[in-house]
Design brief:
The chain is an all-beta fold. It has a 5-stranded mixed beta sheet, with no helix packed on it. Strand 10 and strand 11 form a beta hairpin. It is rod-shaped.
Length: about 200
């Protein structure tokens, strides 16, 4: 739509113009059961108000809209639209943010992608376990004033990093048993070896 300007500039374009600051949003790796928020900015760079006729998210149901989109954006105005990705299971999710505005009959799309991941750990003792029981160590006969050592190996499994906050002996355990401290992050497939010790006094 154009209007006549009687000044020296002649015709003045009075149409609205929608601009998006991105055509794709990457959420990356997100642990299952958590969420991540990303945003897209809608700006009216034209010379009249912009009407938002339709705005919705299609594709995976793990992408949802946070808040309401305004029905119009004034001249020079903008709006930041937040999209939440909350994966319900492991795997890739794809979607689209679709927008129809008064400046065009075309559907504007913003591609959405995220991947749900899940972490876990496997713990093994070496070299021997007590009576074949899992998650136990047999130090055997240890002479007083000497120290026997065993290794505990922690492996990060799954598709998400695992944070090891601590490794301690159970309360009430004899002080003759000790274990290395641990506070680290393991990427999938990485391992952490901790030394456990038995040092009998008598």
């Amino acid at each position: 739509l154009s209007a006549c300007d009687c000044g020296s500039e002649g015709l003045l374009d009075t149409s609205a113009v929608l601009e998006l600051d991105s055509d794709a949003i990457e959420f990356g790796l997100v642990p299952v059961g958590t969420e991540r928020v990303r945003s897209v900015r809608l700006t009216n760079t034209g010379n009249s108000r912009l009407l938002i006729e339709r705005a919705e998210v299609t594709g995976s149901a793990d992408f949802v809209v946070a808040g309401q989109v305004p029905s119009e954006i004034p001249v020079g105005g903008d709006f930041v639209w937040n999209i939440v990705y909350a994966p319900g299971e492991v795997g890739e999710d794809l979607g689209e943010l679709q927008i129809v505005a008064s400046d065009s009959t075309d559907v504007r799309t913003v591609r959405l992608r995220g991947e749900g991941v899940e972490g876990g750990v496997a713990v093994q003792g070496s070299p021997a376990e007590c009576g074949g029981e899992g998650l136990s160590l047999d130090f055997g006969d240890v002479a007083p004033q000497s120290t026997a050592t065993r290794m505990i190996v922690i492996e990060a499994q799954g598709t998400a990093p695992v944070t090891i906050l601590s490794a301690t002996v159970e309360p009430g355990t004899s002080p003759e048993f000790t274990i290395d401290a641990a506070n680290t992050v393991l990427q999938p497939g990485e391992t952490l070896s901790l030394e456990a010790r038995n040092a009998p006094v008598d």
